[in-house]
Specification:
The strands form 2 sheets. The chain has a 6-stranded mixed β-sheet, sandwiched between helices. It has a 4-stranded antiparallel β-sheet with strand order 2-1-4-5, with helices on one face. The longest helix is centred in the C-terminal third of the chain and has 16 residues. It has 10 helices and 10 strands. Helix 5 crosses helix 6 and helix 6 runs parallel beside helix 7. It is an alpha/beta fold. The protein folds into 2 domains: 165 residues, P-loop containing nucleotide triphosphate hydrolases (Rossmann fold, 3-Layer(aba) Sandwich); 78 residues, no CATH class. It binds adenosine-5'-triphosphate. The site of adenosine-5'-triphosphate (ATP) has 10 residues, from helix 1.
Length: 254
């Protein structure tokens, strides 16, 4: 479990998050909804251990990550994959892009072992790469150059790159904000497949309907913290906080 307890974060004088607490379990989808600029990316970066919060604690499986030394923290960080809002692929084929994600996440000992024993499947592609591309329906584009992909395809490859590492936790920052309905549906299906594999998925989105479709629990980020966090059904059908109710009904416009 990743757990944030009373986490606050500021950039200089600007307080972005205040006393945020949440937990993410393997095998669930947690949706973080809130308007643009409220701090969703900051929250994901804290969960990914990229950003150290100004205050509060971040635990992974009971270990307070910011009290650990660098190498122990890096070992925990390898269990978390993040997909950014913009797909950032290298100038190489789809397969190489996904494989690269796999390699950089491997501890050097495993990389060495992989080089010593053959890890290639019959078609010359690492099994984890093919499987991850299959989840996003991109196996037929293995050899295509990344720069020639459409925006939706590139985002699906980014997703596959994150999934191929076999993370315990997968963090997605507005994964479909610029995508058409077909690509959005493919990514949403892939999120559910990741969850069914036992991965804990966090999806930050300003699209509350997306959260309603795919999340098991939802946290509503308004102002500098959660107005509430709970089961998707309860948050959408019976919010206890007035600001949540207004945000979900569209009365609260940012
Ligand atoms: N590195 C940084 N330095 C200074 N301010 C920052 C930094 N990163 C984010 N901010 C500020 O923190 C606030 C929250 O930003 P953040 O990107 O976390 O929000 P968001 O909810 O993800 O927004 P969006 O949905 O538009 O991406 C914004 O006011 C932003 O300008």
């Amino acid at each position: 479990m990743i757990r944030l307890s009373d986490v606050s974060h500021s950039y200089g004088d600007e307080n972005v998050l205040a006393d945020v607490s949440l937990s993410v379990d393997p095998g669930e989808v947690l949706g973080i909804i809130g308007p643009s600029g409220v701090g969703k990316t900051t929250l994901l970066r804290i969960l990914a251990l990229f950003t150290r919060p100004t205050a509060g604690t971040v635990d992974i499986d009971g270990q307070a990550v910011w009290t650990l030394d660098e190498s122990d923290r890096l070992a925990l960080r390898r269990r978390v994959s993040m997909v950014f809002q913009e797909a950032s692929l290298f100038d190489a084929t789809v397969a190489r892009n996904v494989e690269y994600g796999l390699r950089v996440r491997q501890p050097w000992r495993e990389r060495l072992q992989d080089q010593l024993r053959s890890v290639l499947g019959s078609n010359g592609t690492h099994d984890a790469v093919s499987e991850a591309l299959d989840v996003v329906d991109m196996t037929d584009k293995l050899d295509q150059e990344a720069h020639s992909l459409s925006g939706g395809e590139a985002q699906r490859v980014s997703f596959a790159r994150a999934l191929a590492c076999d993370p315990t936790y997968l963090l997605l920052d507005e994964p479909t904000s610029d995508l058409d309905p077909r690509n959005t549906g493919l990514i949403e299906d892939a999120v559910l497949e990741a969850r069914d594999r036992g991965i804990g998925v966090v999806v930050a989105t300003h699209d509350m309907h997306q959260a309603e479709r795919i999340a098991d629990r939802v946290g509503v980020l308004l102002g500098d913290g959660f107005t509430e966090i709970g089961s998707t059904e309860r948050i959408f059908d019976n919010p206890t906080d007035e600001r949540t109710r207004k945000f979900i009904s569209g009365e609260l416009v940012y």
